[in-house]
Amino acid sequence: MASFIDFRNPPGSDRRADNTIRATAEPLWVRRVVIGIVALFFFFFLFLPLLVVFQGALAKGVDVLKEAFTDHDILHSIWMTLIVALITVPANTAFGIAAAWAITRYRFTGRQVLLALIDLPLWVSPVIGGLIYVLLYGRRGYFGPWLQAHDIKIIFALPGMVLATTFVTFPFVARSLIPLMQAQGVEEEEAALTLGASGLQILRRITLPKIRWGLFYGVILCNARAMGEFGAVSVVSAKISGKTNTMPLEIERLYNDYLFPQAFAVASALSLLALLTLSLKTLAEWENRRQFEAGQRSLLEPTIETAP
Amino acid sequence: MAKKKHVLPGFRTSVGWTVTWVSLLVLLPLTALVGKTASGGWEHFWETVTDPEVVATYRVSFGISFIAALINGVFGFLAAWIFARYDFPGRRLLEAATDLPFALPTAVAGIALTALYSPSEWLGQYLEPLGIKIAFAPAGVLIAMIFIGFPFVVRAVQPVIEDLSADVEEAAACLGANRWQTIRYVILPPLLPALFTGIIMSYGRAVGEYGSIVFISGNIPFQTEITPLMIFQKLEQYDYTGAAALGFTMLLASLVIVLIGNRLQTWGNRFRKLA
Description:
heterodimer; A: MetI-like fold; disordered N terminus; B: about 280 residues; MetI-like fold; 14 helices
């Protein structure tokens, strides 16, 4: 067939480009197969579970969903989750900034040990995160008798849940800030110091604006974990619905009572939070990478920048 | 003297706060863990950690999670490869979805996976006639462990693939290597340390995992019980020293896993500098 369209080399791809691709890339069919495999994996392992949650929440109709979110015990679990997050997230944010400042600004003995201890909750089982506080403050723990004599309840009550959540979430802010602050260096802070700024002024006017996306990133990860923590909290909570249940614990209670639509209703709320976290995190990652690269550039080629 | 070393102000405040916080939250409780373990005596410790039911949980927590980590090694590597190298519609979406297991509360993942694979539900109804039992069987534990460990491999491998310089591949192609040879002899070797690091990290996470597993596993003694669950059981019986013994053992095991991971990472970084 006489045609002016060359099928071997369709418009937009000249022969030279085609050859380059062949030398340093996989054939098209390989690429398609690999993408297909990965897409299937994502579908079965990540998207389908999410779909199950939302379908489960809506399966018995919107009325059941409405009922679930007016139920006293479920509302109380939401309240508990918010209280725990409201205490732990600001506390760990303050700690994270202080820790990142200490680790990246100074060299001192024990710095590596401190760094290792900050990392510890990331790799131990969350159940251990609950266990260690039971051993300290539980009825037969080290401080148990004293606490009982003074009628202070930590384990099986809010303070214990806050402690366990603080334990599992405290690395997040520090860990997101440390590499960023390391890359950005201290020139601007030192310049501010020579110009007579105080420590707090440096923190507020120089450092915090420089690290804001990294900080944001750490805070939302910390918050997601604080609201979703299950293993550590279930060790130290009495698991009484309407009293000491957070949302994840309430999900377990509802699920074990075969109240599936309600369990999935609470789960869908937490899933929405997870999706929101993921999108904010992706946004923060882009901004963070931009700042990080800017920081590295300024390390490589120190230039004098005029304030905008 | 010490002041001269620290130019920027806030040394005492920041280090003081950090040390206090870490001491109260980590050091003091860990001391309690070691103390309680020791107070039970060696015999009680040995009895607890070698109890047949507990030993059966090691096979699940340390064995099945190893298989899960290897499976994640394969799929995580492929995912990291296509994110770094290929452009296709939906890439950004998949990339952002990779971290879903980090963001999704484990209890939510637990009930979702259980519903997905229970007999007579979503996928379970098609698998049951084939004689495949996933929920309330070891396979269910495997699925949950794959789910929670997946992001680690992608996150470890993807930046290293992005860092590979194109000239070595071009050189290999110029010298007559076909694509498979280039991948096998030029691309893969510098990626191996990162791949192993990712696998080890995903292994470490699966070993300690609790929330997403306990729903789908059905907690059948000698079959699908995991070690963290044993800690719960000991605490419910007010056997604090037994719980501490198990916690201490798990802590040591995790420490070993982390140290291996760190070693691999250091090795990989040296590799990257040479390349």
